[in-house]
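Problem 12. The chain below contains 188 residues. Write out its predicted structure in token notation.
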Amino acid sequence: MNALLQRPGIARVLALAILACVVAAAIGSIVTPLWLIDRQHRKLAESETRLRVSHAELAERLRTAQADEIPELQGTIEAESPSLAGGIIQELVGNTVLMSGGELRSAELLPTHAEDGFTAVPIRVTFNGDSLMLREFLYRIETSSPVLVVDRLDVTAEQNMDDTSNPWQGDVQIAAEIVGWMRSEAPP
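Solution.
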């Protein structure tokens, strides 16, 4: 090997070959990451395009589904029987009483009856609270989904017989009949 290096032509060729390898390695260390980044950007662009197409398809499906809904059935209770619908209403109303700051005393299902292709499912609830709680409760019931309507409302103020100067303590006892509707079963 020393004999080859002593010849100036071969030494130059070897020096140029080593220099070419170093330059190729330097170029490769710069170009390879750029190529990998470009490839990743292309994959991300393809994924974004697929997501946009999927989003457009889902938006169209949603518009179609919303157009297919029957407006007269919106706000009804989806249940297999009036008893289950009554249970759903009792749970909704009970939670509403508690969220409004009241104390639920009882809830009972009243007899159901048919009204224009729907079944009215009334319940009776009794609870305690103050006037602000009652206001909050009525607001939550009237704006709830499914649609619930307060059909009857009896409010009784608690009185303190020991203090004749201010017999009202601020608490009220409420008895309410609340009605929700479910679709009537189609005749067989």
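Discussion. Residues 8 and 14 are 10 Å apart (CA to CA). Students who got a different answer should revisit the alignment rule from Section 12.3.
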